[in-house]
Write a structure and sequence with these properties.
By secondary structure, this protein is an alpha/beta fold. It contains 16 helices and 17 strands.
Length: about 400
């Protein structure tokens, strides 16, 4: 894909991202509440690809017409299972993005993948299309745990996919889910050491949560399995952060760990409260236009989204102009997730109000906040564990 001028993001320069949602999966995992759908007949990938291109053109025209265009610093294919996409569809989308926007030469192009052998065969094609980073949904390195989590791959397939991804892409990450039933700190330490040995530069480590409208919700409510108690969950969280720090992959966000310089630039755009286009069924976006900062939310059902795009050029159901208070709240919620924290002056300009120094000092004294610069604050590790309450206190 053709590329333009560099615009390297930083703590106070969030960059500009494009998120592309591929909503289809081979099976629905029992813990998953993402917008993912199983289709038992082949999906017309070219038709969905063309619709995503139409939606990209819709937003590009609005952004350029408003005179607020900026270079693309990241593209993220999420899902669902984007590794079910044909490489030719991925290539057509990336080529269209390069036609519609300037793309920074060092732009991060990430694709989420499941480590089944069929999808791994696509890796070479994705790399040729322009993908330079893959995020693998491994979830566990043990077969019995993969079965519990409803995954279709084996531990050996996962390890093979990790090695294959490292051959084809300069950057890669994989996910694990912990705080599973009967998981002790000793068991997690063993799996964590195996993960670090396999990892190149980035790991995403999430505690298992039970979400409504998932199969796990009903099973958990009916006592079919139990999760570790709160003390054990906190111990697992603490040991995760300490172990990854020892191995040179400190947490830069609550659940994300990376060697310095290998953080996910696209996700940092979210956490730094930057602008991004969301295209595809169920995708969300945030854009700063002359009439204000807008939040977009697309139709979730894939075929209904497709029909809306073909009729209107976009699958957006809602487009709201965010109030200053809403922007401030979102900035806090996102910015306090990351180790670099938030710039208080940027927050004040966005929210239309300042956070009192006295309130900050009180939270610092309670061990929930750090002042890392005169005008920058961040949550401590203790603060991460109480993040919702911390955000409410600062926003109140």
């Amino acid at each position: 894909m053709a590329q333009g001028q560099s615009n390297m993001p930083g703590p106070d320069n969030p960059g500009f991202g494009i998120y592309l949602h591929w909503p289809f999966c081979l099976a629905k995992c029992p813990y998953c509440d993402f917008n993912s759908h199983v289709r038992h007949k082949p999906v017309d990938q070219d038709q969905f690809g063309r619709a995503m291109i139409s939606e990209l053109r819709h937003y590009a025209a609005r952004i350029k017409g408003a005179g607020v265009a900026q270079p693309v610093t990241s593209v993220f294919f999420g899902g669902g299972t984007p590794s079910l996409m044909q490489p030719s569809v991925v290539a057509s989308l990336l080529d269209e993005i390069a036609d519609l926007w300037d793309v920074a030469p060092d732009a991060e192009i990430t694709l989420e993948a499941n480590p089944t052998s069929v999808e791994a065969d696509h890796f070479k094609g994705y790399a040729l299309a322009g993908v330079n980073r893959v995020s693998l949904g491994v979830q566990s390195l043990y077969d019995d745990q993969l079965k519990f989590l409803g995954r279709l791959h084996s531990a050996e397939e996962a390890k093979a996919a990790i090695l294959l991804a490292q051959k084809h892409f300069p950057r890669m990450s994989f996910d694990l889910i912990y705080a599973r039933p009967h998981q002790t700190p000793e068991l997690w330490a063993k799996e964590l050491n195996e993960a670090v040995a396999l990892a190149a530069d980035h790991l995403s480590l999430y505690q298992l949560t039970i979400e409504q409208d998932t199969p796990f919700f009903a099973l958990y409510r009916n006592g079919k399995f139990e999760l570790p108690d709160e003390d054990t969950s906190v111990a697992l969280y603490e040991m995760t952060h300490e172990a990854l720090e020892r191995h040179g992959m400190p947490a830069y966000e609550i659940s994300n760990h990376a060697r310095p310089g290998f953080e996910s630039r696209h996700n940092l755009t979210y956490w730094r409260y930057g602008d991004y286009v969301g295209a595809g069924a169920g995708a969300h976006g945030r854009l700063t236009l002359p009439n204000g900062r807008i939040a977009t939310a697309n139709e979730r059902h894939p075929e209904s989204w497709l029909k809306r795009v073909e009729e209107r050029g976009t699958g957006a159901l809602d487009e709201d102009i965010l109030t200053l208070e809403q922007q401030g709240d979102e900035c806090l919620i996102m910015g306090l997730r990351v180790k670099e924290g938030i710039n208080l002056d940027r927050y004040a300009a966005m929210a239309g109000r300042s956070i009192s120094d006295r309130r900050i000092d009180d939270l610092v004294s309670e061990g929930l906040l750090d002042r890392i610069e005169p005008r920058r604050i961040r949550a401590t590790r203790k603060g991460f564990l109480l993040l919702n309450a911390l955000v409410a206190e600062l926003a109140g």
